[in-house]
Structures are given as structure tokens and as C-alpha cells.
Amino acid sequence: MKYVDEYRDADLGRVLAGEIVATVEPGREYKIMEVCGGHTHTIYKYGVDDLLPANVELVHGPGCPVCVIPMGRVDDGIAVAHVPGVIFTCFGDMMRVPGGAGTLLDAKAQGADVRMVYSPLDALRIARENPDREVVFFAVGFETTAPSTALTLKRAKAEGIRNFSCFSNHVTIVPPLRALLESPDLRLDGFIGPGHVSTVVGARPFEFIPADYGKPVVISGFEPLDLLQSVYMVLCQLVEGRCEVENQYARVVPADGNPAALAVLEEVFELRPHFEWRGLGFISHSGLKLSEAYRDFDTELRFEVPGVRVADPKACQCGEVLKGVIRPWECKVFGTACTPERPIGTCMVSSEGACAAYYNYGRFAREREVV
Amino acid sequence: MCLAIPGQVVEFVDEPNRLARVDVAGVIRSVNVGLLDRDGDAARPGDWVLIHVGFALSKVDEEEAMATLKLLQGMGADYEAELEELKASVIE
Ligand code: SF4
Asked: Which of A104, B4, B20, B45 could disulfide-pair with B50, CB 3.0 to 4.6 Å?
């Protein structure tokens, strides 16, 4: 238990680890998916999985927004970035995500005006400061991030800013979970629900998981102790034969979510019929585009966006990692051809990606020793 | 980009646009607090909030804010990078 001393309450950590061992039924395998990349990060940083018995396995889900952007959308962004007069803005993580034709960072090296921003409001300020240029914001993220883009667009509209547009790649959390649950090559026993997404959407959208699929969900905070407790809560449900949505992170996540954020999402965005996910393919009603009222701010209507489909590189097994079918280090190129410095797949780009989390915390070396 | 960093609201700089100055680990930057505008629960100076891409996402109590900060500091390079990006941000 070498990491427990760093927990907010180390004694509670030890007690929980003991309770988990006492709770699981020997001979039964438990596969629990943590949906959110932030959770994956904490799990490997603090070795939460080292505290779990061998028959409890944590599987990393599709909740890292940068990891799920397909190559074709990156290429579309790059095409827009190369349009003369365009200032192309995106979050830092997006700069290194490989498309079929390189990254946005490569596009910048080739002369495109690509700028990293911390907030969509920074992109809007750049638009205000450069009235003779077209400023495009490459929007990514789940319901955690989409309200920020939405409020930014509301402000752009109110101010009558005409040289600002949004290339929306926002996605929603429920459809990929449903797709995973429908996937035949996957066997999951329960879910650790995402903390930040749930502050916006609340706990209710996850109720279909117990209702339709009979599996428990526990929405969790981000501290190692939170995750340990959430794993324990999922295991308790499984052992007692219950399935419901429980909220371990109630100190931050209200059951109904954030009404102001949900209202602005409703106003500014609408669901696309389908959207492509890296490794998961097309998923119905899983992506957000700008609503009719905001069509003037839609990059895809303002510019010629190629809309090409690019197959993932052959060597890349991000899809299997995102579905939890293989562990990151089981990918053939993990740590050799694919590293955080030179990523082939997206899971290696963001520090919330499962491959990067494994790589950064020496997981690879440890796993190799025991194999 | 996935991190949510705790900060303490100092004062409003632009009420109509819901912009407030927030102290994040000693770095003071403008942040939009409009997502907290539900009935009677808007952010006020002194409140602790979790900040994500320049927007306050939720209110937390001080103990939660401190614990989250400690967790982030433990992340090292990722947290440093996020703070650097925040420092470079100029929201008006
Ligand atoms: S090692 Fe690279 S290519 Fe393989 S699954 Fe991870 S990110 Fe994808």
C-alpha cells in the first residue's frame, strides 16, 4: 500500500481497501469501467488498482474528449486553418492530435496561423482584436466543456461579432456508453460515472444503465479515495444483487445537474444525426452542432470543410483500448512507435488518455516485469 | 484541458457579462461565472469555484477546494501546464 499515505485520509483508504477484499466473492471476476479520463489519470498516478484484489479489473472508457476525435475531423480543421486570413484556435491538447495529414502543430510549422487558447473566450477576444481576420475555434469536449462554448457563442451573437465561428466537435456522454453496452465483444459489470460531466447533466441520464442493462453506476470524485470508495460501492451493489445509480460525488454533483448550463446547451446546440468517434465508429445522436439560431457561427457552413473520412492507422488499436477490450500496453506499438512525444493514436496524446497515463506512470515497466 | 481547478472569486469586473476576477493558486485571472447563475445561487466574492476552460463549473466548499488543489499539485507537470495556459489567458 505504498501510495495510500498520500490519500486525503490514509486510514480510511486502508479500511476501504480491506472492505473491498472482504466484499468480493472469490472466483468471480469483476470488470468495472471508469468512463472519465480524469479518473484514469488518478488511478494510475496513485496506483488505486494496486489496492484492488486480482479479480477486480478497472477498464478505461471513452471519456477523454481529445482521444475520441477521429482523424478526418482533425484533417478538416487543418484544411480550414490553411485558408488564407484564418486564425485557427484550439486547446493545447488538440495541437498534437494526429490527423491523416499531420497535426495542427505541423500546420502551424507550415505557415498556418494556429493559436493555442485556454478558453473559448480567449478565441472570442482574438476575434475582437482582429476584425479583418476570420477566427475559428476548434471546439472539443463533452457536456463539461460544451456549455462554455455555448456561452461564448451567445456573447459573440449579442456583441454582433461577425468574424468568429465554431468548428463544433462537441460530443455527449450517453450514446457512446449505450454503444459500448451494445458491443458484443465487451463484458462489463458496472461503471464509475464521470464527475465533471455529471455536474452539468446530473445523475439521471445514467439511469438507463441499471434500467435497460442491469448494471450499477456510481458517479465518482477525482481523489484516489473517491475512486476507491466508488469501486467499493459498485462491488457492494454487485454482491448484493442491486443495480442503481449512486452518487459518491454528491458534494459537487447535484442530482439534476446544472440547469443554467443545460439551458444554454439547449439553446445553442442541436444533436447531429450521427458523429464519428475514433475507434468506435459512427454513433447516432452523439455529436453536437450549432442550432439554427446560431448557424451564422458555424464553421462548417462558413467554410469549405472537406469532410473526408480517414481510417485509423493500421497499427493503432485505440478503438480496442477505448472499448476496454485490450489494455493499453497490449497495443503492438505502445511505448515503441507510439509514445507521448510521437503519438500514433490519440490515447497517447492527452494526459487523460489511457495509454499516456500508463506510459507516464511507469505502468508499462511494472506490467512487463510480471508478465 | 480536462482539469477543473479550484479558485476563489475576488470581485466582479463585468457584471453584465458575468466576468469575475478569480484567484487560482495566487494567479488572478478573469473567469466567466455565468454557468452558476441559477435562482439565488449566483457566485459571490469569497466563493470557491471549480474552473474549467475559463468558466466556473460548480461551487465547492473551502475544504473541497483545498483537497482538489492538493490533488492537482500532486499531478506535477500536467497541473503546471494547465496553470501556464491559465496565466496566458486574457478573458475580457
Ligand atoms: S499505444 Fe498508441 S496506437 Fe496503441 S492504442 Fe495506445 S494510443 Fe493508440
From this structure: B4
